[in-house]
Amino acid sequence: MRDAYIVSAVRTPGCRRSKGALAQTSPEKLIVQALNGAIERAGIDKGVVDDLMLGCSFPEAEQGLNIGRVALQMAGFPDNVSGATVNRFCASGLESVAQSATRIMAGWSEVCMAGGVESMSIVPMGGNMPRPLASWAKENPDVYVSMGVTAENVANRYKITRAQQDEFAYHSQMKAAEAQKNGHFTEIIPTTADRFVEKADGTIVCETFVQTFDDGVRPTTMEGLAKLRTVFAALGSVTAGNSSQTTDGAAASVIMSGDAVKKYGVKPLAKLVCYTTAGCKADEMGVGPAYAIPKLLKLAGVKVEEVGLWELNEAFASQAIYSAQQIGIDDKKYWSYDSPDKKININGGAIALGHPLGCTGSKLLATLVANMQRLGVRYGVESMCIGGGMGAAALLELCE
Amino acid sequence: MAKRIEKVAVIGSGIMGSGIAALCAGAGIPTLLLDIVPFDLKDEEKDNPAARNRIVKAGMDAALKAKPPVFYNKKTDLNLIATGNLTDDFQKLAECDLIFEVVVENLKIKQDLFARIEKVMKKGAVIASNTSGLPLYKMAEGRSEEFKKHFMILHFFNPVRYMKMLEIVPGKDTLPEITEFIANWGEKILGKGMVWAKDTPNFIGNRIGMNLICKTFKMIENSDIIMPEVDALFGPNMGMPRTAVFALADLVGLDTIVHVADGSYENLPDDEARDVYQLPQYVRKMMEKKMLGKKTKDAGGFYKTEIDAATWAKKKLYLDPKSFAFKEFDRKAVVPAIADAAKKGKDLAEKQRILVYGDDKYAKFAWELISNLLVYSANRIPEISDNIIGIDNAMRWGFAWEVGPFEIWDNIGLETSVKKMEAGGMKIPAKIKAMLAGGNKTFYKVENGKDMYFDFASNSYKEIKYSPKMIFLKTLRAANKVVKANESASLIDLGDGVYNIEFHSKMNALNKAMLDFMEEAADYVFKNGVGMVIGNQAPGMPGAFSAGGDLAYMGGLAKEGKFSEIDTFIKGVHRGIMGIKYSNIPVVAAPYGLTLGGGCEVCLACDKIVAHTDLIMGLVEIGAGLVPGGCGMMHLWQRYMDSVPGSVNLVDYGAYVLPAFMAVAQAKTSMSASQARDMGFLRPTDRIIANKDYLIGEAKKEVLKMVDDGYAPPAKKKYPVMGQAAQGMVWAEMFNMKSGGFIPPHMEFIAKKAIYCMSGGEARQGQLVSEEYLMKLEREAFVELWRTENTQKMANHIMTTGKPLML
Fold this sequence. Notes:
By secondary structure, chain A is α+β, with helices and mostly antiparallel strands. In chain A, 33% of the residues lie in helices and 22% in strands.
């Protein structure tokens, strides 16, 4: 099989659902800007792209009608470029990367794009009309269980305490704030956003402005986090402070074969070495990475110690901590913001930066590739848990 | 042009000011609320509007958080309130037709404010002060004739929304047509009980109320009767709220009481009971130590609650005036035997007689206090009120007494009590002697269907003049207008072919006798009249139109395992409810206050609802371990579906099912009629009435209008349901709630039954189903729940304790 090279990977800022900067901007407008940004950084012509795989967890309403194709047309790609929408819930944006890369590796395409989009403000989590099948919901309601309840289950079953979760969350916020301060989010493209404003005379106008940063990052303290109430269980440990934020955002990447890299004279950033998924129990879906990551590393023949950077999606602190424990990288030095040895979510994770569901896989790819480039790290792993009880993981190798 | 109040201003945003503003906005009137610019603005804040409006904003914020709620419906009412300050926005007063002054009780400040208002006010605008003590003539000093013609006192009671009383005090120059106009406006638009008072210190309510309170303060000083005993004597047994005297003082705040009492002493040199207003030493000491009651929790007041740090047990303490120390008491054990005996009296009059004519020290205490109150009240006519009605209304509406002093006097018997007073050496007012000499033995009576009162000035009875919209069932009852009755309900002739079904069971809970009666009544009215009102006028705040269904009856059947009889009973309930809905005469419900469970279900079946604005409505059966059993779920769902225009192809049934289901599953209740409309219980065309006394009159008017318009009962039709798709949604969410420990197992079981009934059982989404099918589902669910031990436990618990048991 051939190699698949990531030649550009960008993302819009991740902004808070409903209250954040992107809340009034249609998901189509977000992904169009991400696609254009990826093409611009790759420095290629839009017409050479063969196909786009676009991840989305709730591909309905504004995100429906095969947004994977519609977005290309809106972004001014010529008619020959095809596109599809991909759904693997929280891993949709990584699944799309894997599918595009696989197509290159198989020799069926030379240049593909991948991406993810989710406006959680506009298409709510669960969709506009969730309809669990009554007969199934009566017998097997756990299939439809709320993600928060699964996080409580993980905390209870594997003894992840409230204090552990809050501490992990605190470090996520601190790392994100630090990364913002130091300008490490080089993968972000300034994004034009809409805002519907009522003028003094009652006229409604749609104003635009440019958003350049993730707006969910906030200074916090352990004491502040400890005061928050639990959300999903009366006597639980999962709070809004130690869970991922619900967020709007889009991300996109350009993936090429070695021949195409040469042909277009592009500098590749990283290689997608391997991708895999694994299933687990639905009511503790957060443990997914604990199954997917060992499977990935075994397939690739790479040892845990060889991996220099990890993007473990922080759906919830409880499942992120448990997954790290199972892989053997839970030592605090790997994730605390003031540690020289930190290698997990070094720019902060979804607790601070948000988890725009179907976008997240592509969003974390952009962050991981930027960090591997900046720090010269050879191997990086991206992984996340998936609603319904799954994990996905991908291994990247730096191109020098 | 007819005079109108199109815009109101309220100056002063404290508890009273913001309360008045909320009341006016709730009545649909654009309202401007102003307060001063803070004195302590920093230089950089001087041009900042937010800083300049800080005080009025704080007032509004407090009003928005107040409990019980000040606003009827924040969503709608807030749109009508504009805020501002007395410097930048003063000119806006020129747009207002009525300006309420609710600023600090300081004569100079008020006079200065009125001088400023006079310069900007629109010609003909009315200015009303909410002062509770300052003389009107002094406040108006220096103002023009024109100003004085439109100036009066309108004295509200706290909390403004809930206390019915509004004292209206005209000055000697105030135009009678203006006061008449405002009195009608206050009664109809604000829903208040207007009490005509005079420019005398503390007007009527506080004059009489303060006399009783201060007299009690004095009497207890050297008595061996303790405060909680006094409150137990003078609570509901006497027709007073549970707070009676001392708990009331704690609630109001001792500082307010002392302020009013001192004012009385100073301004009432000729009052025969002036000494009463000189407060005893222990009260002065409480003031010094800032023991003001509820607002000074740590210091306490007449009462104090302490929590034992070790056991978390609450300790109730009262103040012993002799030792000035708090002492512990047991709320139940402290009730004097005579109060227990009174409680068993068949009606209020008998309870009051037992209390005042008893032999023990408590009865003597009660007698001394009440006889004093009666004589003091009689002596105040015509000083503070031209007639007895003003005083009785003031005490009922301003202090929430069930009956006023002269009604108490009627209850305990005028002749008997006067003899006892004379025997005790009390000075009987000459007007009372003259009244008795004329052979008149009661202050009130009904003659030829009219309410009459005894007028001291003419020493004869006069008719009580009400607004023609007011109908009192009690009066009609006394005038033999009851055409049919059993122990729980009566049918009363309202005239013009309209009849009223009046409930009169305990809390007006629906029982079998009432349901049977409704069928008979509808039959009678069909043959003899044109339409029907379902309304009653039970006392209390907020009172109960009907607080639910008769659990005891069904609980009894369940205990004996007679489930088929429950099934038969529910069939009867359904027949009664659907009988109302499809009868060939219009039926209008007139709910107020507690309208829960079965009471709510009766309303949902009527052609129209004419509701009092203070409406606590909801389907709360889950608290008793049940689902609604009187077609409530079906009718609530029909309300939601009826709100969708026929041309809409409804796709998202879930958006409609969830709020309807949550109302039942969480036993949600409205805090106002406006909220009941938001919850779907009231249709947009159902009416909301501000004045409770208008309710039955307005309902009758609606009946006659429907008759005049050519009434046809609703056409029977099938309604779409959401079907199993709704159950899928709810079952999935119930799993989350159960996992989180948010719902106990039996309540989850009931909630699932509720969604099964509401969504049409096995139906598919959007399927049209018959009412009979939904009624069958409801009946089966209802009976099945009664079969469970947990439902029986929950029902029994709420019956015996009044609180839900979560199983």
